[in-house]
Amino acid sequence: MILPSSKTTPKTTLWKEAGIPPADILLEQLAMRNANRWARLDVNHPLVRRILQQEHEIQYATHPGAATSRRTAMKSARLFRNAALAPTAERPRLIPKRFSSAIWTEDKEHRPTKERQAERIRKWSQTQTSMVVYSDGSKTERDTAGFGYAVYRRQQLITQGCGQIGKGEVFDAEIKGAVEGLRAALAHQRPMEGITICIDNTSVIDCIGTTAPPSSQMAFRQLQKTGDAHPGMIRVRWCPGHTGIEGNELADQLAKEGAPLGT
């Protein structure tokens, strides 16, 4: 009796020829997708409440008997196991739409070319008398992201700084740099002095002027709340990167120095 090759060929070889990953890898990918989705649910989502409640029952019960803890853990073992696959991250909140003009941002519908905007910023920075914050973000091959900022007044460097946000994207590091740069500028601000934040990432600028996105939502809301507390004082402008503008080049260098640092 001659059996078909599918009966004698190893399963891994069949999966490879068919272009199908092994079942354990498929299941692992499904579990990771679920874990990432759960990690980004609103804190008031029923599933998140269940996870937090069960964790509280196990870890902070007044009299956590062994049987009670074991029974509670077994009841939600699969839920806990999957949720633990995703790294700890900031949970975005369901927030209302933002309709505020407290922070001035450039109109994205009439944004000029990179070369023209760079020339505008170069000329503008030479005559600016208020404070200017240049911020930037960077990312390493290990997926750690860093930010850098430089604060100027009348073309003179006042303060600078850098740091790391852990694993993340340049987008997240950019807004963190803007927040930290604004905080540093406020510490050196004179009465009624305006502050302009120059960022080379237009996506970050567009998100500052509207509802905070799920990614780095807390940082965006923090910057927006600062603007709401000082209406009309903060402006955000696009400063194209790698165009020879001193403040942007310094912020870029600081971001690259901050990316490998520890959090």
From TrEMBL:
It comes from Akanthomyces lecanii RCEF 1005. Residues 127-260 form the RNase H type-1 domain. PROSITE patterns: RNASE_H_1. GO terms for molecular function: metal ion binding; nucleic acid binding; RNA-DNA hybrid ribonuclease activity. InterPro entries: RNase_H (IPR050092), RNaseH-like_sf (IPR012337), RNaseH_domain (IPR002156), RNaseH_sf (IPR036397). This is ribonuclease H. Keywords: Endonuclease, Hydrolase, Metal-binding, Nuclease. Belongs to the RNase H family.
